[in-house]
Amino acid sequence: MSLLEVRDLTKRFGGLVAVDSLSFSVVAGETVSIIGPNGAGKTTVFNLITGFQRATSGEIVFDGMNLVGSRPHKIALAGVGRTFQVVKPLRGLSVFDNILVGAFARTGDREEARRIAEDVIEFTELARLRDALADGLPIGTRKRLELARSLATGPKLILLDEVMSGLNPTESREAIELIKRLRDERGISAVAGVEHVMQVVMSISDRVIVLNHGRKIAEGTPEEVTADREVISAYLGE
Amino acid sequence: MKKSPLYLSILSVFLIAAPFILTARYTQHVLIVVLLYVALGSAWNILGGFAGQLSLGHAAFFGIGAYTAAIIASKTAFSPWWALIAGPAAVLPVALLVGWICFRLRGPYFTLATIAVGEVVRLIALNWTTLTGGAVGVVIRPSLLSGTSKLPYYYVVLVIAVVTVTLCHLMSRRKLGYYLMAIREDEETAESIGIDTTSYKLRALALSAALTAMAGAFYANYFLFVDTTTVLPLALSVEIVLIAIIGGLGTVAGPVLGAVLLKLSSEIFRNEFAQANLLIYGALLVLVILFMPDGLMGGFRRLFGVGARKSQRVSA
After folding, report:
1. Structural domain that includes position A200
2. Rounded mean pLDDT for each run of 10 residues along chain B, 316 residues in total
3. What is the ipTM of this complex?
4. Which terminus of chain B has fewer Cβ atoms in its 10 Å neighbourhood, N or C?
5. What CATH number did the domain enclosing A168 receive?
């Protein structure tokens, strides 16, 4: 049974159709990439699923619960975590406190929340920065912190908006490694939004969905998608 | 919390013994005023400092607390001291209404809306003459505690201040405190990690308003006179905010330090420099803001190299 089921999802902004009758599903423990050029509608899809924007029509069912119309915090508590394309750390708080805030979603108990945060800070390899203020961190670390904060809430599914943008090659490799471990060690599903067709990202994806102008133009294994003529033309032009 | 630091024990002994050491009535009066503002700055800090919702309308909550005491004294047979409980109770529906309206707005728009709330409450109090006495105000008959001694007042306001600061301290280390700080830093991020931002902002407002009203109820019982120019002016809202900002926003000790510095110096300047006191007061504000932009707490941290945000870290 699928963990996330998106059916005929449509979002219009006035005359612009940002997402056009999109359907896809994510199975528990699966890593799916949504790729597509800038403006393809990836961020809108993430905002619709997490309740930051409201769908014009269509259905989003997560774990048997219809998410359309729910407020973002309800969706987060239901088990859908997210990161933001433009990272939004809690600037005035330390790395550890950023993660601790996330952990309070699971418990009101301070010691229990600290244990969860300790576990997450180890898992995401941020322990050596625990007392640093989130404000001064380099972009790669901030992205990692976004993921850590979300992970602390105990999600079943994490939506990673533009995981790779702005990262240097080393940071990219580390990010990919972390996403892999998310699935392999924690069994958490991930949907990663990626702008460019990156061979490395493709290699960790169980499935790839290609968006262009808000429509799904291809879906399949990384190999199938990269061989698809429509996908190639969307990226390279006719 | 398991072992209270030594300085807390020394401070407690000092606070309890203070009126016996400082026996001059005027000195005791200054202590009472300082403690009143410790409570006000700390109560404001819950909403403004921790949750980042800068209210310039807290005089409304203070005034409602004070008027509750005045109305109990003038219209009922009960002691106006009951306003310490009735004031916070009366302010809660007002606070929730204010939150429902103002929390639709963010940043400076929220602040502007709270100024409007303060003015609306002031104008209602000014014109609802049958209840509030209008511009004439209400004189409260001296009650039980109102002998010549200031001691009872000192201990009542000490309890109010200690309760308020303790609540801030407990909150700052628990889920509520962390959630308010998350809302202050970024509301969207807060929602994305499961925080019901509307609900938590309302809780912060309710707690902050109730404690402010309690301080207002004490004020009425101590000064025995309430009118709109003393308990509901915008200047009072501004003063409360200054105490928290000068001391250090979102820190537990900040408003305490801010109240001590600002109220003590304003008393000293008023006595020593007569007409020039506001000038010196203003210069002091400018100096603190220039050289300690994070308030006194931030300045101390930098000076003494105390770790970043240590006051907000949970002890292991």
Report:
1. 2-236
2. 72 89 89 96 96 95 96 91 95 95 91 95 94 89 72 94 96 95 95 96 97 97 93 93 90 92 85 76 82 80 57 36
3. 0.91
4. C
5. 3.40.50.300
- Alpha-carbon span B207 to A139, nearest angstrom: 37
Contacts with B312 from chain A: Cβ below 8 Å: 93, 97
Amino acid at B251: T
Dihedral in degrees, nearest 10, Cα atoms B257, B262, B267, B268: 80
Q: Are B118 and B60 in contact (CB under 8 A)?
A: yes
Pick from B234, B252, B210: nearest CA to B45:
B252
Indicate yes or no: CB of B313 within 8 angstroms of CB of A149. no
Are residues A200 and A176 in contact, defined by beta-carbon separation less than 8 angstroms?
yes
- Taking CB atoms and an 8 Å limit, are A133 and B197 in contact across chains? no
Is residue B158 less than 8 Å (CB to CB) from chain A? no
Query: How far A117 CA lies from chain B's nearest CA (Å)?
Result: 12
Q: How many domains does chain A have?
A: 1
* Angle between helices B197-223 and B83-102 in degrees, nearest 10: 140
Q: Say whether B192 and A76 touch across the interface (CB within 8 A).
A: yes
Tell me if residue B252 falls in helix, strand or coil.
coil
